[in-house]
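Quick start: what a row looks like.
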Amino acid sequence: MNDKTLNKINRITGFVLRLALFLAIFIEIYFQRWLMLFVTVITLVLTFLPMFFEKKFNIDIPNDFELMIIFFIFLALYLGEVHNFYILFWWWDIFLHGLSAIALGLIGFIIVLYLSERKKVEAQPFLLCLFAFCFALAAGTIWEIFEFAMDQTFGLNMQKSGIVDTMSDLIIDSVGALLASFSGYLYLKNKRSKLTHSIHSFVKNNPKLFKK
């Protein structure tokens, strides 16, 4: 499957996910499920974040990476919170933590790659990848702090089983971050793979950012 066909599939998939959320809004209004309506509307709005960042920072986010973000928001908020997938499937939270860690690791690597190309930082490939790993893990840690604060302040149960849930999430975050940083290492070594596709696409789509 060539890139043109893959990009078309990604665009169609993103459109279908947004359309499903749009239709779900009317369903929630009909049944007067106001809390679910609120979460669904927030989910739909957040799926447009990639478009916002593209216009705000004048960048071109690859379609596959954009779909990953939309897909994660859909799975986490709509299916997870509205349809209780976190309760129905014990592995749902683990899966989403791993997915978010990979995405954040790739974002961290792209940031440090940009700084390296612009000669803002100078470091060996290992250190660049280490930054990506730490970036993703730090984001995961901040989220766990947020869950703890919400539970303590509002009496919620975001941490489920407490310390066990927190540590399990951080372990999964570490695995996802390691996978993303390893893909960054492969990219720096000029080795193409499915892991490096998003990085190659982002650099190719934004030549001005990575022009030395």
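That is the whole record. Residues 125-154 form the longest helix (30 residues). The chain has a mean pLDDT of 87.
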